[in-house]
Amino acid sequence: MSEQHGQNERQQPAVRKNASDSAPKTPVPAAVVPPAPGPKKKPRPTGLPVRSLAYPEPVERMIAEFASLPGIGPRAAERMALHILRAPPQAASELASAVMAMRQQIGHCAKCFNLAAKGTVTGVAVATGEGEAAVLCAVCSEPSRDDQQMLVVEQPRDVLALEQLKLYNGLYHVLLGRLSPLDGIGPESLTLGFMMDRLAAAATAGRPVREVILGLSPTLEGDATMLHIGEMLEPLGVHISRLSRGLPAGQALEYANKTALADALEGRRRV
Ligand SMILES: [Zn+2]
Q1: Distance 264 CA to ligand 1 centre (A)
Q2: What per-residue confidence (pLDDT) applies to 249?
Q3: How far is the CA of 126 from the centre of ligand 1 (A)?
Q4: pTM of the predicted protein model
Q5: Which of 12, 110, 210, 241 has the most other CB atoms within 10 Å of its CB?
Q6: For residues 175 and 253, what is the distance between their CA atoms, to the nearest angstrom?
Q7: What is the whole-number distance in angstroms between the Cα of residue 177 and the centre of ligand 1?
Q8: How does strand 124-127 pair with strand 115-117?
Q9: For residue 114, how far is its CA from the centre of ligand 1 (angstroms)?
Q10: What domains, with CATH codes, occur in the chain?
Q11: How far apart are CA 243 and CA 86, in angstroms?
């Protein structure tokens, strides 16, 4: 059983290499897909409970890997492992290669931190001046987007939920979390520094962002994060609005139904 697993999951800032030239100093989480916000962390299972006879070690290891995934209990993990064992070898290698391909081909957008696929039609490579090619997401590489509107969200999946509404044509900025002091997530763990750099660069380029829309989840932590961002943006004199209160309290944005989300976006109010 892997020793490192569990140490890495929730952690934590490593300086991003692909950033723009504007020398942002805020460290961001290095993981491609950041950990879900909130205090819940699934402890690494040590195998199935209450069993006198164990499977051979590789099977137990597979079960433990599956059981460490969100929403998968030990019984389901066991069924999945045994299913893979019964399936043709080709199916197992397809699964393994899909896992590796996803990790290798998906990164964060160099501008907004949405997920971006390298080497695809939407994953347009841009020079960073550091000898590495960064990638822009589907939204940032779409020239018809209104670059003077910026909607700030917690996670890439929120971008997906909002894009499905087809009501918003501006850009996004993904924080990769929200402030949660109890979990050790402070402002430096989010992409706030990059957001400020983007706003400054846009102003310098003569295309200042006119409106920043705060689209964080209506939770205590989301509210605290919005308050913090409001204070950061105040000196810039930018128009700040937030999604209206139609969203169910305490619920992540991605789970809001489309009508509620559309109402919240259209009925947004100035902060
Ligand atoms: Zn982007």
Answers
A1: 22
A2: 63
A3: 12
A4: 0.69
A5: 110
A6: 14
A7: 16
A8: unpaired
A9: 5
A10: 57-104 (1.10.8.420), 144-271 (3.40.1360.10)
A11: 49
